[in-house]
Design a protein that fits this description.
- By secondary structure, the protein is of the alpha+beta class.
- It is built from three helices and eleven strands.
- The strands form two sheets. It has a six-stranded antiparallel β-sheet, with no helix packed on it. Strands 6-2-3-11-10 form a five-stranded mixed β-sheet.
- The longest helix is centred in the N-terminal third of the chain and has 31 residues.
- The protein is globular and about 40 Å long.
- It starts with a helix and ends with a strand.
Amino acid sequence: MHVSAVWLFRRRPSVILAVIAAGLMLLAGCGGGQAASATSTKSTAVSEKPLPAPEPQPGQSQAQEQPAAYGPFSKSSQSVGMLIDGLQLKDIRWSDHGSFFRVVFEMATPDGKPLLQVPHAQAALSTDGKQVKVVLGGIRSIGSSANAKAKELKAGDSLVSTIDRLPESDDQALVYGINLSKASTYALAGLGSPGRIVIDIAK
């Protein structure tokens, strides 16, 4: 130890001890900061698999299907929504709106509760224009509704004859064929809260 340092230690030992303690605390603080940074980075990691949205809060308004067509009607392939894994097909509905015919596929969370997000779907018209093929993405289960469980639904309309579930090798998608009595055009739309896929077919 240097002579001046020895003299200082003999005269002011508390000063030397305070300096040493402060140095140790500084070193410990640096190490702790690195650990905290690593922990923070790990905790903000994003899951690679998208999850269904939470159920609506009590009193939250739900979107209504509009009486007009979601058009414009087209022969082209169309797609809407975001791909969400683990959805349930809750129900299938249809209705005649005069100038067009509407088919609605309603989705839900895995436990059957309303979905806030707009689910993913793709649609395409057959070359003869007599079938609209609809692919509903992210479906893992089917609800208790009779229409959702059915493999063939008879629409009883002059234009739309049946809505059939088609074979599909993908275990997280359902495919439906909306069969028409004559060639037509269609429009695809997606709604949220609750999540629905809407197909409007021109009459």
